[in-house]
Amino acid sequence: MKPNQFQISSPQYFPLILGGFLRTRFIVLISLILPYLVVERSLATKFVKDYENQPRKFISILALVFGQIFATIVSASAILTIIGILEIVAFAFVVNAAASMMFAVLNHRNQQLILKINSFRVNDGRYTLAKKFQIEENLRVLIAFKYVLIIVGLVGALILITFVLGYVNFLPSGMNIVDHLLIELLVYM
């Protein structure tokens, strides 16, 4: 048995364990929102010709099912102390950093596409109004994501640094309740 592992000797601990599971699951689901949005916009870029006309319900259903299963497995693993919170925070940071890089590539790609479309003549066969509007919508969404991604990245880096400092016992042991509340609020951001 690991040193921080505990045994459930009474059913009175069930609400505490269930609450911890749901809380961890919520944190994992929230940390996956930005990568899912970037993946959705990348599919909108890939299928730019007919993204609005062709219903692709499988994209949202697949993302929802994958996210729920992944969050449940990670939360159960955390509750059973198979993985720790530091690993979860580090994984979320890496996934969101990868989403940030993918975001930059998508933004550049969509800007190149709109420049290319604007250079076509209207009677050219490669120009369609639907394609132009879809690319412009992609750019608007990506511009809105940019600021959110920057803030979430900075907060994520701060959370990861805080957890690493706590993990290596660098934070002072005499922290008061205000410090604990600030760190907890930082985690929920």
TrEMBL record:
Keywords from the named record: Membrane, Transmembrane, Transmembrane helix
Pfam families referenced in this protein's UniProt entry, alphabetically: Sre (PF03125)
TM annotation in the entry: 12-37, 58-82, 88-106, 141-168
Main location: membrane
Family: Belongs to the nematode receptor-like protein sre family.
BP GO annotations: sensory perception of chemical stimulus
Protein name per the record: Uncharacterized protein
CC terms in the record's Gene Ontology section: membrane
Cell compartment(s), UniProt: Membrane
InterPro entries according to UniProt: 7TM_GPCR_serpentine_rcpt_Sre
Membrane topology, as annotated: Multi-pass membrane protein
Organism lineage: Eukaryota, Metazoa, Ecdysozoa, Nematoda, Chromadorea
